[in-house]
Structure formats: structure tokens, C-alpha cells
Design goal:
Layout: H1 3-34, H2 43-53, H3 60-83, H4 95-117, H5 124-145, H6 159-170, H7 179-201, H8 206-224
Length: 248
């Protein structure tokens, strides 16, 4: 495999990661708006909400946040078991990443069925169930993305990404060096905006924001990396682990 092909594959992976960030932003916005005010992947925010809810007599928010945190942790465990851990000789897009995202897609489709069954206006019990499914899905996505082995790469918890961008720019690094990190951040914001716009105006179409972004990732991955085998010696031009020096 030539260096040019490896470089192209990395660029493709980077675009797909931004699409996953769009999916995360949309899912979090939908969860916050439609499932009682809890997040599906922003666990820092959920832990703050859990603390705030402890001072209120109504325990509804506390229960929702607890479900989101518990299901997200379960999703992370599940995703890590499927995707495995990063290896220095892995290809740019390990087959196990696709497997993890397929599981996420199945979870999103399950939520979509429940959403449509409630006509886009789930009741209290359905809200909790759908919140849990979405939290598991983003937990799977979060741990699956870690399989790339790229330092700082994330599509969900992005406070660290924002901090790194600011520190790097303040230290004199060029904008180009942090361009992908900025793209991920804008992807998250754009996904949240899109998810909100659809949920508020055409709620029955809401799941298509998540299905669309995740579906594109899986289709492009299947076309770009069609063989589900790891060719360790075919990626000797530049091990993907070297990308750990890239700022995300």
C-alpha cells in the first residue's frame, strides 16, 4: 500500500469521524428536548444535573439522569468488547470499528421504532426507555472510536478537544494543525442544531438525522474498506499509531 493511499484513507476516516460527531450532537439534543432534560453522551453535564436534582423534591430528573449514566457506561463496556483496543499495526479503519458502529445502528433503529410507535411524542415511561437506548448507542460509539488509537480523538466528550485546540493555538500552532478538531466541534454543534430543528418542527422525521449520519458512515466505510480482515503488513508506510501526535 502506498503512502498516498494511506493518507487518503486517513482523510476519509477524518470526515467520517465528523459525521459521527454530528450524530452525537443530534442525539444529545434530541435526548435533552424529548426525553426529560438528560443528555445521552455528555456525562459531565449529567453528573452536574444529578447533583442539582438531589436538592429537588421531584426525583424524575434524577431517575432520568441515572438511567442515562448507567446505560452510557453499559454501552462503553459493550463497545469496548466489540471493537477491542488500539494496536500499533492496525489499519486506518479496523474492521471491529465497523462492527461496533453496526451495533450502534441497530440500537438507533430500535429507538426509531419506539419513537414512531409513540407518534414522536413519547410518554414518561417511553422517554426513559428511549433515553436509555440512545445512551447505550452513544456509549458504544464512544468506545468504538477509541479503537482508532488516535490520541485525543473523540466524537462525544469534547471539552478536552476544545481545551486542546485553545492550548495549541495559544502555543503558536497553526490553524491547520487543529483543523480536524475544529471540524469535529462544529460537527457536534451542527448536529445539535439539526436535531433540534427537526425535533421541534417535524418530530416524526427526528430519527432520520441519526440514521442518516450513521448510515453514511457505514456505507462509506464498507466501500472504502470492503474486506473485514486486518492486513498488518500492508500498512507499513506509516503506522496509524503515529497519528497520535495529531491534535484532536
Amino acid at each position: 500500500m502506498t503512502f498516498d493511499r494511506t493518507t487518503r484513507e486517513r482523510k476519509t476516516r477524518d470526515v467520517l469521524v465528523v459525521l459521527l460527531a454530528i450524530n452525537s450532537g443530534a442525539t444529545d439534543a434530541i435526548g435533552f428536548l424529548a426525553f426529560g432534560g438528560a443528555f445521552t453522551s455528555v456525562m459531565t453535564g449529567n453528573m452536574v444535573l444529578l447533583g442539582l436534582s438531589a436538592t429537588k423534591p421531584d426525583a424524575t430528573l434524577a431517575r432520568l439522569v441515572a438511567v442515562a449514566i448507567t446505560c452510557y457506561i453499559g454501552g462503553c463496556v459493550f463497545g469496548a468488547r466489540i471493537a477491542g483496543t488500539a494496536e500499533a499495526a492496525s489499519p486506518v479503519w479496523p474492521p471491529s470499528v465497523t462492527n461496533g458502529l453496526r451495533v450502534e445502528a441497530a440500537l438507533i433503529l430500535t429507538y426509531a421504532i419506539g419513537w414512531w410507535a409513540s407518534d414522536g411524542h413519547p410518554g414518561a415511561s417511553a422517554q426513559m426507555a428511549l433515553l436509555g437506548v440512545n445512551a447505550v448507542a452513544l456509549g458504544v460509539q464512544s468506545s468504538t472510536v477509541q479503537r482508532f488509537g488516535v490520541s485525543g480523538l473523540s466524537t462525544t466528550y469534547l471539552t478536552g478537544t476544545l481545551t486542546t485546540v485553545i492550548v495549541r493555538l495559544t502555543s503558536g500552532r497553526s490553524v491547520r494543525e487543529v483543523a480536524h478538531s475544529v471540524s469535529i466541534l462544529f460537527g457536534l454543534i451542527g448536529g445539535a442544531a439539526l436535531g433540534t430543528l427537526v425535533e421541534v418542527n417535524v418530530p416524526m422525521l427526528t430519527p432520520f438525522v441519526q440514521i442518516g449520519s450513521l448510515g453514511i458512515v457505514l456505507i462509506v466505510a464498507a466501500l472504502t474498506w470492503p474486506r473485514a480482515i486486518v492486513e498488518h503488513d500492508a500498512y507499513d508506510a506509516e503506522p496509524d499509531q503515529a497519528a497520535s501526535s495529531t491534535t484532536y
